[in-house]
Each structure stands twice: as C-alpha cells, then as structure tokens.
Write a structure and sequence with these properties.
With 318 residues, this protein is of the alpha/beta class. It has helices at residues 5-12, 26-38, 49-54, 57-70, 85-94, 109-125, 154-164, 190-199, 215-223, 239-244, 254-270, 278-299, 305-317; strands at residues 18-22, 43-48, 76-83, 99-102, 129-134, 139-141, 144-146, 168-171, 205-207, 247-252. The strands form two sheets. It has an eight-stranded parallel barrel, surrounded by six helices. It binds glyceraldehyde-3-phosphate (G3H), 1,3-dihydroxyacetonephosphate and zinc ion (ZN). Zinc ion binds next to loops.
Amino acid sequence: MIVTTKELFKHAYGKYAIGAYNINNLEQTMGLFEGNVSSKAPFIVQLSRGARSYTHKRMLEAMMKTADEIFPDAVFAIHLDHGDEATCMDCIESGIYSSVMIDASAEAYEKNVEITKRVVEAAHARGIVVEAELGQLKGVEEDVVAAEHVYTKPEEAYDFVKATGCDSLACAIGTSHGAFKFKGEQKLRFDILEKIQELLPGFPLVMHGSSSVPQDEVARINAAGGALKGASGVDATQFLEAATLGVTKINIDTDGRLVWCRVHREFFRDHPEKFDLRDPGKVFMPEYAKFIANKNVLLGSAGQLDSVREYILASEKA
Ligand code: G3H
Ligand code: 13P
Ligand code: ZN
C-alpha cells in the first residue's frame, strides 16, 4: 500500500522513527521489501537524483509499482531524496511519488523559502507531501559541498515552516552523508531538536546522514580487499532518543552500500571461479533484508505495521 508520510509520521511521532532507505536497483528493492515486511515495519523508499539517472527514472518507478503488487502487506511511501525544483515537479507529475524532498538548503534563507513554497503548492495540489531542509550538513549533499556544519536555527525553523507550509523538515544537527562522519567522538546537537520541538510541537523532523557505519562491516570489507580507513557513523542507540524529540524519519543509505560492498567483495574473494551476477545477488538479497529488519528494531518501527495500517484506514474513513 503506497501512502504519504502524513499518517506514518502522525502514528510515529514521539515514539519511534520510520526508516527511509535509498535504493538504486532490483536486488536492493527485493531485499528492502522483504526486510520491512518480515519485520512488520512501515517504511519510506528514497530515490535520489543519482538513483533516477543511474538507469532510468521510469525503471525505478515501474519497480516500485510492481513491488507494491507483489508485497501486498507492505505499507510505504515513495519519496524523492534531495530534489531540486525541476526534479520535484517531475516526480509530482509522475503519479508514483507520494512524497518529495525539496533541498534548497544551500540557497539563502529567502530563496529557500521561495523555492520550497512553489514545490509545496504544486505537491499539495496533487495530494503529495513535501520535506524541506534548513541548515546544511557538512560534506556532500547531492552536488553541494559544505566545509562545516551549518546547524539549523530553531527560530528560523519555526518561521520557515510557517512561511512555506512544508510537511516535514530536515534539520542539520551534526550528522553528515557518507561513511566518514566523525573524527573521534560523535557530537549530535539534540539540544537543537529540543528547541525546535518546543517551538513546533507535533511537527515531524527528519535526520539525514544517519548511517551507523558498523565497524564489523568495515573490518570485513577491508579484510576482503577494501580500503575504508577511518570510517565512522551515528550511534544507532540514539535513534529512539531522537524520536522522542520529534524525529519521525531517519535516512539510511551508506550502511546499505556497505552491506552490498561486503557481500560482493567476500563473494568474489571466496569464489574466484564464479562470474554469474546472480550468484552474489542471491547472497545479497537476504543479507540486505536482514540488515533492514535489524535497523527497524533500532528505529522502533519493527512490529508497527498492523497498527499503522489500521490507523491509516481509520483516518481515511473519518
Ligand atoms: O543523501 C544522499 C544519499 O545518500 C543519496 O546518494 O545521491 O549518491 O544516490 P546518491
Ligand atoms: P547516510 O549517508 O548516512 O546513509 O545518509 C543518507 C541520507 O541522508 C540520504 O538522504
Ligand atoms: Zn540526505
């Protein structure tokens, strides 16, 4: 069942967070749906601009439609990750996406408001919800590179939400994209979330850059020929604390890439005579499903599926 994030966030608010997972291909899609259905979790499929151009955007959309048919128990939103205005408009027109992110966070405040407002207007006219972003994550966000964190300012967040009418807000609190998030101890600014929650009670917040970069995964990759030095990520035991502060969506991409990398490196190290792409794929799909199911336990979304489905159906009737 394809849904918007509106009801998902209402159901989760203050209690748990929904996993938002990036996918790029068929094997990830199969593992993603298996893992969420087996752990009974609602979820968000994220398609980035990079994912849309990797093969063809319509191919990904067709896979989502088919996944909805072959996994009738799945409850999920289809979301554009880090969109620019043109891509948001294309996704709004596609008839497949139930949610888009407009990321104009690299623009000056007024310009960010202006662009976000246009996307909100177009999306809401089609019943699609919008995530926007204020503040900047250190490192790379799609094609923009920020040398330092630009933390979200709570008062500005309040004004921004009121001015744009966006449905959720990605906040910069010290995380970053990719496998190299922290040198030494991690520092997440939960005090910023607390202040935003005070100003915007009940409003859904989003945490990007939330992969944990498990050290055992990194060690296995390096033992199989990889060279990931100094990789580190977010402590997953903090997900539930973030959820109590209004974070309803937690974005995870890098950790899934690490699973892919580990499975394929180990597979070809251990089976140098093999060359059928389906052989490592058969190992990857259940491994990815297991990875998703484990994440959902940490997010608190595991086991929520029946309750969330009833909640959505009841609110549709009301
Ligand atoms: O935020 C970035 C996501 O991890 C997507 O990455 O643009 O390389 O697909 P990508
Ligand atoms: P990671 O790189 O930490 O997985 O973050 C993904 C993300 O924020 C996608 O928007
Ligand atoms: Zn992101």
